[in-house]
Amino acid sequence: MPQVPVAQLKDYIGKDLGHSQWLTIEQDRIDRFAECTGDHQFIHVDPEKARMTPFGTTIAHGFLSLSLLPMLMEDLALRPEGLKMGINYGLDSVRFLQPVKVGSRVRLSATLVDVYEKNPGQWLFKTRAVMEIEGAEKPAYIAESLALCIV
Questions:
Q1: Nearest alpha-carbon partner for 131 in 86, 97, 103, 87
Q2: What does pTM read for this prediction?
Q3: N or C: which end of the chain has fewer CB within 10 A?
């Protein structure tokens, strides 16, 4: 996204910010996330046992899928002119709707829900982020993400 003059930020409220590139969720990424977090539940890391579940294969951790939000938002997020830095401010809500099976391709779609000047030179962005799974009816999750941009 191009940089936007601060005076025009509110013009983007309700606007579709587009889609990220597709990303394939490989077992190696799932295993590395399990190692980092200590969450080695078999549904994520044991293909043999996971084959016996209703999913028929391993699935990504919900928090792995969520942790991809900043990376996938990189090319979608609005940037106010004069941006010095942006920081993750949290989430207002998140709902995991469908697991991401290993080998699935995912992408993020984003819509700006709100933006306002929280403090002088600090703009708080609320973005509705939807992680789509290629070929699936339901998304992996819908989240309201918050980012603080400092100009």
A1: 97
A2: 0.93
A3: N
